[in-house]
Amino acid sequence: MPLLARRTVGLGLSLGLGLGLGAGCFTEPAGETSGATDGPNDTGATEDDSSDETVDPDNTGDPSGGGCMGCLDAAGGCLAGDLDQACGAFAAACVACDPDAFCDEGQCAPAPLCNAGNCDGCCDGDDCLVGTEVTACGEDGLQCSACASSSTCNEGSCELPCDSTCDGCCDASGDCIDLDSTDATACGSQGETCQGCDADFACSRGSCISTACQADCDGCCDGAICNTGDSDAACGGGGLSCQVCPMGTSCADACIANEDALWQVHVLSATTNAADAGGVPWDPSGPPDPYAEVTVAGVLEATSVANNSTTPLWGEVLFDGIPTADFAEGLLIEIWDADTLLDDSMGQCSVMIETTEFGVPLQRECTDDGDNLQWTLQLSIEVAPT
Ligand SMILES: [Ca+2]
Ligand SMILES: [Ca+2]
């Protein structure tokens, strides 16, 4: 797991911070790309090219603001060069590909025999497969994906297992019951198997507590016991279940991040779309190659590239020793599809982390302006080892 060299990003990215909600998104159209030219095999080296800044000041697809990495239209304007009707690279004139061809990385290539026009499942070379197997998962004529180990294929999309993404409990069908659920027949936390609570017990934040305690307790309930709720070992109020405060947090009605604590950002996994909002696959020849860029207080770090996957499993520590105050304006997170020529942005969102959310697994969704879900990311902010 590489711990990449830090660098400071310019104004273009920093402006995206501090705009609030977890779903506040800033999405580039498909084909708008960063300057990162790392291919899928160039694992983790995305941030090490000194000439390779991610900021794209004039939005031409070229981070330097100078030469064009895509193609030039009739008026001399620089286009991304990845559309069938405007295909090209390195400032060549844009060309329209033949009707039976498509644009692959700036070059017109013959359309595959299996495609969206004749395959409802997924394409494996020239073969159309049903697309519901973990070994060949996909739909709408996209290339079949082999889902990452322990993932499942649900209606043509690879999905991470419930126990790795669920903050509540996983029921017998593998569905996640949310941590906020008060259903006493399916109670649990952190992806454990759902349990039913005994009679006269209720489910509170994934724990069974007695309904009598819940009704009478001003502090927090540990089973049937009412605690004052002001200790790090039993924290909470209002008759909810007691919480054990994670390392680096202290009890003040809830477990709050200590101001003097230092933190790591753990980027765990994500689920992405196989295609952009227009249905165009991120890569014509297979699943995308995602990596995540995370910016905290103006410093950008990136995960390695997960080749050919819509369920990347990173499990990487991107920052180490970040003070609590540096999270006040949130994180800017962008997931990219690594390409040979120009990477595709799969969506960028500003993500806020509340002071009560440190030390526990988190999940954040990113939607675009049209409310299309672009990605779901699992991360956690963990106290840095001293
Ligand atoms: Ca791509
Ligand atoms: Ca790619």
Task: Describe what you observe in this structure.
By secondary structure, the chain is mainly beta. Among the domains are: 7-65 and 261-383, C2 domain (Immunoglobulin-like), CATH 2.60.40; 176-256, no CATH class. The chain is built from 3 helices and 35 strands. The protein has helices spanning 11-14, 162-165, 211-216, and strands spanning 7-8, 24-25, 71-72, 78-79, 82-83, 86-87, 92-93, 101-104, 107-110, 122-124, 127-129, 132-133, 136-137, 152-154, 157-159, 169-170, 176-177, 192-193, 201-204, 207-210, 220-222, 225-227, 230-231, 234-235, 240-241, 249-252, 254-257, 262-272, 290-296, 299-302, 313-323, 331-337, 344-351, 362-367, 373-383. A 6-stranded antiparallel β-sheet has the order 1-30-29-32-33-2, with no helix packed on it. It has a 4-stranded antiparallel β-sheet with strand order 31-28-35-34, with no helix packed on it. A hairpin with a 1-residue loop joins strand 26 (249-252) and strand 27 (254-257). The longest helix is centred in the middle third of the chain and has 6 residues, at 211-216. The protein is elongated and about 75 Å long. The model is unreliable at 1-65 (pLDDT under 50). It binds calcium ion (2 copies). One calcium ion (CA) is lined by residues 40, 283, 288-289, 337-339.
